[in-house]
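Chapter review: from sequence to fold.
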Amino acid sequence: MNLIPDKSPATGSYWCTWDTQWNVLKERLPAGSPIPTRDAMNEEFLFGSEGVLNRFEGMRGDMIVVLDDGWDVPYGAADSRLFGSLAADPERFPSLHGTPAERLRQLSDRVRALGYRGLGLWVPAQLPTLVDGKELSLTMDEERAGWEERARWCHEAGVMYWKVDWGRGAADGNYRRMMTECVRKYAPALKIEHALVRQPLFEPEKPEQEMHAWREKYLREVLPVSDYLRTYDVAPEFRYASTLHRAAFCLRAAAEVSGECAVLNVEDTALIGAALGCSLGVMRHPGEERMQKLTYDYRPLSETLCALRWQRMAPPFAANRGKTLISEETLRDEWHYPVRDASLWPCVSDVTERHSAPAGIARNLPLPEVRAEGERPFVAASVHPETGALCVAAIPRTLPGALERTPSAEIRVRETQIDAPVGLFGRFARMTVEFDRPVEDRRVWAQSLAGDAAEDVTGEVELRGNTLSIAGATAARVAGAAENELPAIVLKLI
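The token string follows.
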């Protein structure tokens, strides 16, 4: 028995080239300079004999490929006024020919031929204002006309996704709305992602650094005109705490939005994406073990695979879909950055950073109950509004001397549909799930989310009344997770 469907619905999840552009560099970056990272992007990088797209076996059909910063500007581009052409640079992509739309179509076809869902593009929130050495001053009508043209190109080319990032209009909700209007009119199949652009490090306890009022207003403007809203770049050491904090902020804002609302994109934090019904902007790559590791240890791709396969059963859903509960209790992570190369992300040296996030977030179910001696993990959970699938994640902490370690805890969740799949992510001492009906007449099947066959684990779990209880050791055994991997399994009561 295989509990995991063969194919994925449209999830909006993608693999983004940026981190891999960074990590394949043979030399360290100059402090504060993205130029070498941009210059890694070209045809050979993507499609060559050792091209990065030749990997990702078993998950290509679950992801769009997003070409990040650098794909449409000349080598060495540093002037921000050059960005926004959306025309593949001819020196970077010499095999492409024809109009901008025809060249994009050739790129799109090559990506699809490798088995990926399609092509996405990194897009700045601006048009170029330095063209052929001439400075331009664009009216809003000219800006709109430019985006209409680019939307038509992408429609003709079958481009699936725009990842809209920084630029002159990055903080302007009206500008982003205009971009979306152009896409809706001239490329209706294309999905557009906007973002809350921000720095990676912050102290959430300090409202003055959060710019709460402005960000709430911005989100109320942008969430209704986005297919996806990206929580934005985080420091690797605080990826879970920062992303949870930002997700909570966005979910609170989304609760005030009636009608259409974005799905949150939580970038590379696969556990959070699965547990909270968010899309992924995957940054890691199967070849990381061969790459220069500038900021972090090897990140297992198994986490990505498991989250993507879970999305086949529980695709991401709008940030205002259903009820969100956010714990009033916060947990604080801490990490000391030693004296180090200033080019390493984030660009800090010899400083201790502290980041806080809600202890728990739950969508469409009560907050999980968490018991632990000493430190606790972050816990996130959701019930899918259509499939009823439950997902729970015990999320690692970053504490002094312990980078991404999950404190042992007993976790209990309530109000779960007995016939729906249950996804369990991360390490825990014991997980107890309360269902809407008695469970004692059921068999319990469990399967690694990285595997293809379920096993009967009825004899290894406790069934009593309406509850199922499973030990973390049993979940880890079923998952077959290595020591540096986080277990992920799916359960089904039959």
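Two observations follow directly from the output. The mean pLDDT is 93. The first helix runs from residue 18 to 23.
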